[in-house]
Amino acid sequence: MVSGTLEAVRSTTTNDNSVVALCDNSSAIRGRQIVVLEPRNAGGPSALDFISVLRHLTLTAETHNFPTGVAPFPGAETGIGGRLRDGSALGSGSLVLAGIAGYCVGNLHLDSLTLPWEEEWAYPPNLAHPRDVLVEASNGASDYGNKFGEPVVSGFTRSIGVTVGGERREFVKPIMFSGGIGQVDHRHTEKGSPLAGMLIVKIGGPAYR
User: Is residue 14 over pLDDT 80?
Assistant: First the structure.
């Protein structure tokens, strides 16, 4: 008998393919043995050796919708940044490799392209125009990922605003989707337990300041 939502979801896993699921900042599925180059002494300067290790594939995804609607460039930046943080924080540390970005916005109202279904609806004054979201958010996502060495290699865009049954159907508040894949060493899939005397350090601060 499951006792909660997470337990119910975990109970559907019937094989050992899920290495990390619903218990950390990211998830991991079973990978394979690969040969890598590692230092002989990880605590200081040393020679490098080829060794065989078990590496798993990681996946992290989240949305950063309202901040991207208010300030598309920094909103998308922090959407990518938060997901990079989560992907890197799996277990005792993992590696991020490539990113995915997706955007769903309302009607674009492009000057050079008039579309028959695009009506002149009012938009909230605190949100950026859909066409500005697509351009600036895309730039922000690529900018932040590039600074951390993670390219955005795939993604999607959706633009829609129609009247259905007399009601407006539109992505007035945009969707900014951020996903990423990476890898984690099997030896690093679990976090260590805190010990007495350890310090808690806060890094960073409020966004947009």
Answer: no
